[in-house]
TrEMBL record:
Transmembrane segments: none annotated. Residues 4-67 form the HTH asnC-type domain. This is ArsR family transcriptional regulator. Gene3D superfamilies: Winged helix-like DNA-binding domain superfamily/Winged helix DNA-binding domain (1.10.10.10). Pfam families: HTH_AsnC-type (PF13404), TRASH_HVO_1752_C (PF24273). It comes from the Archaea. The keyword DNA repair does not apply. Keywords: DNA-binding, Transcription, Transcription regulation. The keyword Cytoplasm does not apply. One of its GO terms (molecular function) is sequence-specific DNA binding. Coiled coil: none annotated.
Amino acid sequence: MRELDETDMEILSMLAADSRRPFSEIGEEIGLSGPAVSDRVTRLQEAGIINTFTIDVNRGALRAGVPVLIDLDLPAESLTPARDQLQDADAVEHIFVTAEGDIRCYARVEAQNVREWVAGLFEEIAVNDYTVTLVDDVEWTPTIDGVEFALTCAECGNTVDSEGETTRIGGEVYHFCCSSCLSRFEDRYQQFESDA
């Protein structure tokens, strides 16, 4: 398994800032050809480091509603259905789940209908309480700079280094710190498949 090098990190940083940036332009900046950048991006995708390329729509410029933070206090059994409901809601841009099992989301909704929208969204889901906070200004700048990147073993959670292994099981890519973790994972996966 190849470790992430400085060039991979530079490519990730540039794509995080603008995922539509041409590979030839990235290559000029870091001293590689466009096809070489494309090969590296493909390897990062195959390794599961890059999942998707997305766009960040400025809904404010589209006059798509008032920005609000919604804090939900939920019983434990409502966490998954509430999260699923929020993921399907067009107005919701970001969802955060706290260590206590509460949900906070950032959304843009019509000003006069915020509470009505929230109530309608969760009419079939138990919610202990919720608060809605009007947001005055938003800055969302996801970055990978200053973050230590390391792949983690799918079996034991340890860091995967250059001696680790990567394999595709059931259509998904998994990383392992050693061959014994890979074997244990494959055994459990096969057992799960035969039981299903």
